User: Fold this.
Amino acid sequence: MSGGVIRTPDPVDFDALVARFRSLYDAEPDGVWAAPGRVNIIGEHTDYNGGFVLPIALAQHTVAAVRRRDDNVVRVASTSIDDGAVVTLDLTGVREDGDYDWAAYVVGVGWAAAQRDLPVTGLDIALDSNVPVGAGLSSSAALSCVTARAWSDLLDWQLDDETVADLGRDAENKIAGAPTGLMDQLASVCGQESHAMQIDTRAVTITQLPFDLPAAGLSLLVIDSHTEHSHADGEYAERRHSSQEAALRLGVHELRDVPLESLATTLDKLPALLRRRARHVVTDSARVERTAELLLAGDDLRRIGPLLNDSHASMRDDYEITVPSVDTLQEAAVAAGAHGARMTGGGFGGCVIALVDQQDAAAVADACVAAAADGGFPTPSVFEAVASGGAARIE
Ligand code: GLA
Assistant:
């Protein structure tokens, strides 16, 4: 859906990408692969606590034209980064304390494959993407997962989807130095059209649940605040540390192991800050389970709205990962008629999602733009999320 302030990101031009590959490398690509970004519907910062998450894969992708090489060299260029300059790296020199900038998400996959004793050769890669960057929509997972899918297909590694996602996660955690959980990569690899994925991050199992918003007369708006906290990485690591500290003090392996039923008495054992952090993790994971029950039962999807609002309040008051611009957009969306809204992703900026009746989409989007202007925040951009398929070869 486009019109008014709702504007779908322009699609990637596959022909132009292949032409670019030819001009960069003076050869034909062996194929073209695509991997999507994601929005998480509910369950934030639960994935590194062994809890539940419920993301969808987006219709916005990172696309890679790729050719296998016979040596250990990776050459990679992206239309949208550094004016398309080619980065050249030797895989044999890649190490955990290296600094590879954005190319870490590419060479890190080769490093991770080599750690698993998979046969690895170099690649020539030309990239393009319409996943918004720095918005909490997992553009980095789209990049690592398109690389993992292409490498695996070209070298016939015969990996299951979870392992493809895990290669992407290793690249992010170990070579790019971002201490993420596995949600984003699993969503990018395993997405299915018109479905949301309930992921048990401890068991690493995925239940595909029906999530056909258009059939229910609904839209999921993604409202990008265009604000990013400059210390987001440090704050993420700090939340991860707090979660581990809370689990340690409670004598459990992970916060996943704290039962919801006895939450209040359990939390009494913690100092105030850790109590709030643990309460968010345990209640948000429970909200995923409740949301999944509604989806599985084929219930009216509008009923997940209050859970989205509760999740936002929990991220704002207990986990303290929202920022004023994002809170403003969430409140404006709900005041303008959204059934529910919440920040999605790691936090400290990024996007709000809002579940709206289709006929209210434009009014909710307009209200968000107006509220941002009133608050002196950047003008948000808005598009409609469509639950789409995961990483795949497309040519
Ligand atoms: C980022 C991380 C994920 C997850 C979310 C918060 O997107 O990459 O692993 O922790 O934040 O839910």
Notes: The radius of gyration is 21 Å.
